[in-house]
Amino acid sequence: MRIYRAKDEQDLARKAANIMSAQIIMKPDCVLGLATGASPVGLYNQLVEWYRKGDLDFSCVRTVNLDEYKGMAPDSPQSYHMFMWEHLFSRVNIRPERVFLPDGLAPDSNTECLRYNAVITGLGGIDMQLLGIGVNGHIGFNEPGEEFAKEVHCVKLTESTKQANQKYFPDGRMPDYAYTMGIKSIMQAKRILLIAKGEKKAKALAASLQGPITPEIPASILQLHNDLTVVADDDALSLMR
Ligand code: PGA
User: What are the residues facing 116 on neighbouring strands?
Assistant: First the structure.
């Protein structure tokens, strides 16, 4: 495990973007596992800036996202589809047919989980998986207590996650379920890049990186990954021993 300390938000974005852009440069048709939420916004902005300067090319890159709300239309403003198009896909030269997310509107959730698993396998697996971390230690929507062995599956969101994401749903109508890559899908990525900022992530980060490996802290399994890079700011690292 490598941990890089970022001195501020911009430094965190730049360090993480450097790591991801190195992946794209070394393997132009790499498969990136991508994440949504507040954590990766700066990183995506930095990648867009380097793309505009001519330093990065996404024309062969393939992407699979970690998760999507069940029941959410792709063109809904709160969907993770929309998030990805707004923050990254529409701003770089990525090919629309090479980006993949779970289909929130799929009529049958079991079939959708199998389909999305097959998408990941069909791409040959993930070269680099980007992760944020939840205040409860979740990664993707793998909530505390979930089995480590799962691949793509449908989860009931916990109250803690719903509270953390409530700000995105001013009408209060946040979905109860989501599709997510499982821990097994995440752990099969060749490289993992975890980013965390702010004091509210400090407890989860310290427990995940230095505490016992337990399903109660889903991110703790990352200690067993052989190519984990963490980029975090001082506040997020403040409870590390
Ligand atoms: P955040 O969420 O980036 O919005 O803090 C991370 C997560 O819950 O996985």
Answer: none
